[in-house]
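Alpha/beta fold hydrolase, Streptomyces viridiviolaceus. Tokens?
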Amino acid sequence: MSVSYRQPGVVLTDRRFTVPLDHDDPAGETIELYAREVVASDRTGQDLPWLVYLQGGPGFGADRFVGRPAWLGRALKDYRVLLLDQRGTGASTPANRQTLPLRGGPAEQADYLTHFRADSIVRDCEAIRPAITGGAPWTVLGQSFGGFCTVAYLSLAPEGLSTALITGGLPSLDAHADDVYRAAYPRIERKVAAHYARYPQDVERARRIADHLLSHDVVLPGGYRLTVEAFQSLGILLGRGEGSHRLHFLLEDAFVSTPRGPELSDAFQEQVQSLLSYAGHPLYALVHEAIYGQDGRPTDWSAERVRAEFPRFDAAKALAGDEPLMFTGESVHPWTFDCDPALRPLRETAELLAARTDWRPLYDRARLAVNEVPVAAAVYHDDMYVDTDHSLTTARAIRGLRTWVTDEFEHDGVRAGGPRVLDRLLALARDEA
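Tokens:
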């Protein structure tokens, strides 16, 4: 039964759907999907087209907006919006350390998680679309990994789409995870250099924290073991609009004086715990590299292996000399599952996923080459999370796709400049710009 309620300027309706775990076995096991319908409060009785929002990730539920912030207010001028918790996330059937043991051991858990990639998400959308739109195609707005899903949608079921809008999420159609990370680490270096140029005092602060972590065993209040590699991964902030400033404020008061000497402050540790913990989105860690699997090669902890090709990211070597500590970015490593108590029970499952070789292709070049769906994509220049060259190569492979390449925003442009970003994409898709 659907339940409706109000927030400032909007009416919300909770929707729940049952879909097959494996869409190739529709009579088999099922899972539940949750989605939140949003409509402007002054348009509740109107027959509006639908826009479904595919969140970035993988592994994050849809944004829990209050009212009409970011891009949502602009979307509600034209659409009813469906905020979908992709399978395994949010209020949909969860996949985490508490629930995955219901599947059995690590092998059964890994098999289960093979059904949580973009192709399954697209087929979920197609399974629920008739109940929502009466069968009419809808507009999709895909952010980051949601954009990957949108390109898979154009490949697998373009008949379900009236328009496709993509922000920071045009994937390579054929790159292996190794190719993704070989392109990523130089971008991360540039972001770190830009951060230190803005905040030169952070060079010494980051080195001091890293040096402390190399000589002390630090366990955060929630049980997260803060190693120097884990500390470096805070560089993921540098791909967001305000991320450099947030990192600076985090570093500036890291230490306090105690009877035992300088220690990392409780306030610093609490903030780091909230930034690094995967308790709220464990799927991100489990299937992050699997989203690039498309051929007979395993991903095999790609980010960890490729990192060794970039020695500047070796913290011990940097601290032995006078080099600045290099932060890292959007990557998952074997040690991630040792550090995080929300992931430790899933380490063997993650190993099995990293070794898997039977990933199916996610994108159909031939179908994309004859695409007839209006598509517009925002490509953020030097996006830390998604390679610009990969995105533009894919843009040229999708017939009729119009790109807006901008350096005004970082990867989170749809949130930071949402009304403007969505307005621009709609104008491009409608051939009004």
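The chain has a mean pLDDT of 97.
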